[in-house]
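Reagents: none. Just compute today. Protease PrsW.
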Amino acid sequence: MDGDLLVKAFVALAPVVLLLVVFDRLDAFNLISAQEILILLGAGGAIAGLSFVANLRVMDGFPIGFSAFTRYISPIIEETLKAAPIVYLFARNRVGFKVDAAIAGFAVGAGFSVIENVWYLFTITDANVTAWLVRGFGTAIMHGGATAIFAIISHEMTERQAESAAAHYRFNPLLFLPGLGAAMIIHSVFNHFPEQPIVIMALTLLTAPATIFLALIRSDHATQQWLAADRAAHEQLLAEIRAGHFSATPRGQAIDAIATRLGEKAADARTYVELKTELILRAEELIHAAQSGQATTLTDQDRTKFAKLETLELTLGRTTLAALSAQLGFTRNDLWELSRLHARVRGDA
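Predicted 3D structure written out:
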């Protein structure tokens, strides 16, 4: 590989990857692992290949010129495909904070742009370094920024669902349409100015990262309030369970009724309720510690408790677990916090 190609590759590929690293460093909660980011980058790269094929197939069916196609059709195809893994993460409750949504979205867009630019590097060999500056600092940042903004808006739209009882959750794809529309518009506007590449590159560099930064700063205070409120509520719930006062509450009475019907497994049901509450609270404590810059080392006790929780889940069965969960009223946020802790425990095992 000659020196000229290396320079072109660097300016085409490095900016979006470096910006992804910056966003990741802004994640004080450190809840998206390097492995997960790599998976999202890979997903974005795969989507770039799929988009290439889809664009060729769809272009044949539209009697419009290439310029009109890139302005109005390809943004719909590409942003819809890039949105798919983010929607999957939301549906599977793998996204908690807005910063995580933004990083996940930008990672998918970055993976898309890297593969797209690699393909162009080896097919458009006569382009000068300025053209690759535009692709690296303009097109690539646009791809990452558009998907990140989609993820941020989607987080905003689905936040109420995450804060409601998980037992009542119903996936609603309509909530993702505003973010998808915004991503398509951003992409389309960018493609409207092929004759002014330097101007659109500068605007992209000014607006896309700044918009993401502002959204993350704005969400920081709300995140702190969410953590503080959740932690206080779960501390109170655990104290009531341990003091025996929980049984006098309507939720406690409902759980006791379920436990009583289980006969010899009644004690297991009550232990499960206490242990799950304790682990959710432990997850919140570790997230708060990470945000405050404190050590977040897992203990053997954490691992033992998760092992016990898994044993109880097998013993009680899905039907009983669903009945207990409905009465406990844990939110999707709570279950997401628990899943992140569980992933750390499995990763350290």
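The longest helix spans residues 197-243.
Action item: order primers for follow-up constructs.
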